[in-house]
Amino acid sequence: MSTRTVFGVIIMLLVFAQAGYAGAKNEIQKYFNDTALKVETTDDPTEKREILNESLQNMTSALEKVRSMPFISKEDQNGIDYLNELLQEKHNELTGSNGFTRVPDAQLNAFSVYVVQSMEQASRTVTLSLTTLLLIIIIVILLA
Amino acid sequence: MRILHTITFKPTTQPYPVFLRYIGCVAFVLFLYSCSTVPQTQLKTQQDDDPIDYSLVFLIHGDGDYLYHDTGGFANKADEKALQRAQRVAEQNPQAEVFIFHQKPRKHTLFFFPRRDGKLYYYRNGRLLAEEKYRRNQGDSRFDPEVQLYHRFRAKEHPRPVTMFLYFGHDIPEFDGRGYDASYRNEIFTVDDLAGGLRRFTGESGAFDLVVLSTCFNGTPHSIGTLSPYAQTIIASPDDLHLSYLDLKPFERLETGLRDGDTEAFAKNFAQHAFNRLTEYIHTSVAITVYNVDRVQEYVHAVDSAYNKTLTLLEELNPGFPDYIDCGDDSAYTFDGMSDGVKVFYRPPRFGRLQNKQSHSGWGCPVRPE
Question: Domain containing B274: what range?
């Protein structure tokens, strides 16, 4: 991890702390929105699928890492489990596993927007503490 | 040397207490300002001779997480978009009076002095006649400030106009209700509080002709039943509703859309329009229902016992936000006549487990705890 990345993370932390809870939640929504924009600007379906796959996996890994931290509350763990379940479903659908039909190449743009809209709706129903949200964001940034 | 010391010492110490005094004065003025009551706005013009055929109340909740991204990837604040659209409706209706209440996050001046977190825009005959900021957390019940402002401004001399109430926000909880407002985490807001607000808005005139809930998951037997005494027709979603909300275009030029005075027909046209608009760019499910309040009472009463049992269990388990399903998919909530008085506009999500679900009963119910 470069000094520049660490410095960037510290600056972002300060910014999020100022923006507060809503700011941190928005940052997670922005993550999926950025993925959708990347998918849309890519022509090759294989590449589109890779972008989506990586995005979902990075977020899943970040959620799992944060969930395993000793100081995460039971309530936050439940919220993380719920988000993970949603992401897993999206991943299954993308890859066509666990009973899902694989998303056709021609629908990958629409699917990426579906992920954005679906996660925006989910973020409203899941309550995570600010600390947990910040940790998720930091780890996602570091994994990217 | 001693004299010199006195001379040089004085100028450096005296400004300090003076400066502190200034700071104290500024703080005191800000304190008084933050405690002050709102000066009453006078209407810019009196136009009591112009006809008022329609009276609309918009209540836009913005004190929470209301960010969404449109299909172009641009971030939008749902409450601010809703405010713009409501203002457009107000400007486009020369025969209406329109109240727009915008409930905003609480902010502070210099970290300590709370600023006003509500704003009323009052339009009459297409013109903005008053803007007034107010404090939301004043009074015994949730909508006290809004109800007071409504009764202060409304055009009283006119025969009863067609009345409509439109709410924009997250789903209004059916139990618990804590945490709805980001600025007042311990304040409680449930659908019962909304019903209380509607009762005081309408006063002796009875019920609103139309109530529109631009929220998720309030198209439930419990919510519709609770609001029934204060509405003749209700539009709500039994499922998730995207934060871009229901498109208000049909509310512009009500004298055309409501020419024949049939509010229920107008409600169905509006719901159809909003549904068409949402399905153009939303890939999650879209469900909008129009409820004829009189005709749905039989189902609301039939399902009441099973529904309340679930709510009681959920309150005990405290799961946070409950999951909702189509009431028609659970036999405990399914009764003959559940489709009476409902007009459903439904399209399943384009992806996910429910993408092949072809129809919806128009009623949402919480998943029963095992």
Answer: 49-366
Whether the predicted pLDDT of A16 surpasses 50: yes
SS3 B44: coil
Number of domains in chain B: 1
Nearest to A121 among B73, B240, B320 (CB): B240
Cα separation values, B25 from B11, B13, B21, Å = 22, 19, 6
The answer to whether position B238 is within a domain reads yes
The pLDDT value recorded for residue B138 is 85
Beta bridge partners of A68: none
Q: What is the CA radius of gyration of chain B?
A: 25
Is B37 within a domain? no
Percent of chain A with pLDDT over 90: 63
Choose the mutation target among B351, B353, B354, B367 for the interface with A, i.e. most A CBs under 10 Å. B351
Complex-level ipTM: 0.84
Does B77 contact chain A (CB < 8 Å)?
Answer: no
Which residues of chain B does A111 touch, with a Cβ-Cβ cutoff of 8 Å?
Answer: 283, 351
Which B residues 130-189 touch A at CB under 8 Å?
Answer: 170, 179, 182
| pTM across the whole model | 0.87
- Asked if the structure places residue B68 within a domain, the reply is yes
Give B179 to chain A, closest Cα distance, Å.
Answer: 10
End-to-end CA distance of chain A: 12
pLDDT digits (tens, 9 = 90+) for A83-115: 999 999 999 999 999 999 999 999 999 999 999
Examine residue B183 and state whether it is found in any structural domain, yes or no: yes
